[in-house]
Amino acid sequence: MAEDRHFHRGGANTAAFVVDIDGVEVGRFTECQGLEVEVEYETFTEGGVNGFEHKLGGRMTWPNLVLKRALTVDNRLFEWFHEAAGTTPAGTGKTSRNTMGITIINGKGEPLRTWRVYDAIPIKWTGPTFANSEDQIPTEELEVAHHGFEAETLAK
Description:
Layout: E1 16-21, E2 24-29, E3 31-33, E4 38-44, E5 54-61, E6 65-70, H1 76-85, E7 98-105, E8 111-126, E9 139-145, E10 149-153
Antiparallel strand pairs: 1-2, 1-7, 3-6, 4-5, 6-9, 7-8, 8-9, 8-10
């Protein structure tokens, strides 16, 4: 096997997602949900044409992204949340949108594919649930609204 281009499960070769904001890495994640797009469409029928309905494409819709990872001591993600909302001590009170990159890497740390998410703004951060009776790893979750994405394959 000359080149490792596969996504692995478990162990030292676990693939992950690296997330950056305007080119600055803010963390690695183990789960990303909502990376999808849908085109709304209208249908109409034409008299005498009984074999199909015409479908006209319309607006594209992009659901929010949800990123999950084990809780870390790194505050960059939480700081982005506050900066984008304009709630930092030096904040202007105005929200700001950024370009967010989501890059999947293989077990060797090599990038395989990147999605550039445009006009991203974090809208919800969820921290860990604390309970003495559970043996779960504490996690954090970030929900991000955006105006679409483009994909780029990096591996050759």
